[in-house]
Write a structure and sequence with these properties.
Blueprint (H helix, E strand, L loop, with lengths): L7 E8 L2 E8 L2 E6 L4 H19 L4 H8 L16 H13 L2
Antiparallel strand pairs: 1-2, 2-3
Helix pairs in contact: 2-3
Length: 99
């Protein structure tokens, strides 16, 4: 018996801390900023680990997006509408929830 293949989708989001690439493969969420290291990159790693855990435990993409939407940081890029890396992750989760 074969196991179902999980497809992954990667979306690109411009944030005040750089370009954020978010990959969703089933219940697993990973993300990386277009630059290595730093506090923002570590925070993105922590948030995506918690997102994955929430999805495994039954949270919906919509619930996750609602929790993260609107968070802001000093490096916000309002002309593009992204307030923070968390806000960009909410956008990615909302895109995943929309067919």
């Amino acid at each position: 018996m074969s196991t179902p293949q999980s497809t992954s989708v990667t979306t690109k989001h411009r944030t005040g801390c750089g370009t954020l690439y978010v990959t969703r493969a089933g219940e697993r969420v990973t993300a990386s900023l277009g630059k290595a290291g730093g506090c923002a990159a570590s925070q993105v790693g922590i948030i995506t680990a918690l997102l994955s855990l929430a999805l495994v435990k039954g949270a919906s993409s919509e619930d996750v997006a609602r929790c993260l939407r609107g968070t802001s940081c000093p490096h916000a890029s309002p002309p593009r509408g992204v307030l923070s890396c968390g806000d960009a992750l909410a956008e990615a989760m909302a895109q995943e929830a929309t067919p």
